[in-house]
């Protein structure tokens, strides 16, 4: 079909193939090319009709999804959405797939699979549409280079999560500097590029990367292994320290809180904000309120507008604000919207973001 997104589904579950295939076939502007049980069958189908997007399981017989993904990225880079189980093993495998060039991940439970997929149909379709817009050559290029138990989270309503616009509690007399980063589609690879470039002497960093529950711990662990700075999945009341990056847990919002001269994070339950939990806007607005001019806000690759309003509030509170440029983004959605709303002071390529972060040390 002309101007529609052709999708290939590769999953050894007949239920997934049937339900996902039907959801995609029913979505306007998307058509299902094939739904096959393993990568070897997919390779045969792709000889005749190459898909625009591939929805791929990672654990399959005959050839695993990561081997297949690496083969695709080496031969003909194509947007891939990973469909993975919500398990620790699934999270670790999915992180390897993201590092190999996958665009995003959709999770699936082991039980109640059909009902879950139907309920998550909108999310799946949105992921496929975002993948179709992705600068997959940039993903492929990056792919080739490549503590104590948490306290119980606090439950808040949406109104309590989002501080009032323009309200700030941050006194300016402090030497503590904060960097807040928000990203989504393409962000796992982009964050790795930025954080691995930072030395141990770095301002404290708080990060929201749109990612499902259970996957952020594996992501943080992977980054911690390759970075000079310490990278952790955030826990409620963790202190924000120089040389440390805290990543909001999937399925929880993260806010910045100030206590005297020190900064901490709150990890909380709450409703979706901008269709996301964690939400970049929730983090950025709390940073505007509690850090003010002592902060740097960075918005990076991602689909949608999450973070645009919060970044504007940060700028109004005196913070420096930076957006990743269009050329280096996998999806130029979130930065574009932030620029449009006037929240961005400076636009830089991905390779320059580490320098903007280090500039916080000498402000």
TrEMBL record:
List of catalytic residues: 184, 210, 306
Coiled coil spans: none
Keyword rRNA-binding: no
Stretches assigned to the CheB-type methylesterase domain: 172-363
Keywords, comma-separated and alphabetical: Chemotaxis, Cytoplasm, Hydrolase, Phosphoprotein
PTM annotation, UniProt: Phosphorylated by CheA. Phosphorylation of the N-terminal regulatory domain activates the methylesterase activity.
Location (main, coarse): cytoplasm
One GO term describing the cellular component: cytoplasm
Single GO BP term: chemotaxis
Span of the signal peptide: none
Compartments, as annotated in UniProt: Cytoplasm
GO molecular function: phosphorelay response regulator activity; protein-glutamate methylesterase activity; protein-glutamine glutaminase activity
Catalytic activity: L-glutaminyl-[protein] + H2O = L-glutamyl-[protein] + NH4(+); [protein]-L-glutamate 5-O-methyl ester + H2O = L-glutamyl-[protein] + methanol + H(+)
Domain topic, free-text comment: Contains a C-terminal catalytic domain, and an N-terminal region which modulates catalytic activity.
PANTHER family linked: PROTEIN-GLUTAMATE METHYLESTERASE/PROTEIN-GLUTAMINE GLUTAMINASE, PROTEIN-GLUTAMATE METHYLESTERASE_PROTEIN-GLUTAMINE GLUTAMINASE
Similarity field: Belongs to the CheB family.
Protein name (record): Protein-glutamate methylesterase/protein-glutamine glutaminase
Organism annotation: Pseudoduganella armeniaca
Phylogenetic classification of the source organism: Bacteria, Pseudomonadati, Pseudomonadota, Betaproteobacteria, Burkholderiales
């Amino acid at each position: 079909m002309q101007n529609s997104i052709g999708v290939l589904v590769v999953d050894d579950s007949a239920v997934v193939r049937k339900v996902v295939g039907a959801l995609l076939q029913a979505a306007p502007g998307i058509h299902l090319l094939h739904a096959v049980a393993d990568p070897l069958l997919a390779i045969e189908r792709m000889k005749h009709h190459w898909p625009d997007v591939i929805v791929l399981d990672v654990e399959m017989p005959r050839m695993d999804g990561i081997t297949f993904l690496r083969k695709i990225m080496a031969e003909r880079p194509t947007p891939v959405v990973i469909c993975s189980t919500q398990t620790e093993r699934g999270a670790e495998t999915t992180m390897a797939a993201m590092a190999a060039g996958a665009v995003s991940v959709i999770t699936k439970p082991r039980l109640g699979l059909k009902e879950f997929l139907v309920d998550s149909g909108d999310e799946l379709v949105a992921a496929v549409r975002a993948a179709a817009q992705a600068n997959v050559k940039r993903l492929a290029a990056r792919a080739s280079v490549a503590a104590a138990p948490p306290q119980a989270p606090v439950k808040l309503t949406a109104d309590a999560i989002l501080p009032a616009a323009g309200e700030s509690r941050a006194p300016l007399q402090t030497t503590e500097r904060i960097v807040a980063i928000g990203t989504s589609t393409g962000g796992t690879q982009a964050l790795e590029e930025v954080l691995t470039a930072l030395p141990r002497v770095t301002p404290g960093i708080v990060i929201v990367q749109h990612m499902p529950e259970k996957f952020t711990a594996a992501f943080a662990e992977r980054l911690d292994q390759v970075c000079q700075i310490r990278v952790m999945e955030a826990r409620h009341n963790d202190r924000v320290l120089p040389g440390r990056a805290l990543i909001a847990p999937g399925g929880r919002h993260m806010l910045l809180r100030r206590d005297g001269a020190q900064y901490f994070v709150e990890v909380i339950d709450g409703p979706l904000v901008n269709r996301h939990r964690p939400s970049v806007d929730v983090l950025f607005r709390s940073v505007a309120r509690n850090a003010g001019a002592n902060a740097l806000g960075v918005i990076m690759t991602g689909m949608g507008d999450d973070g645009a309003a919060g970044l504007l509030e940060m700028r109004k509170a005196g913070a420096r604000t930076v957006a990743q440029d269009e050329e280096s983004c996998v999806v130029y959605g979130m930065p574009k919207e932030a620029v449009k709303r006037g929240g961005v002071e400076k636009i830089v390529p991905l390779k320059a973001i580490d320098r903007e972060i280090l500039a916080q040390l000498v402000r």
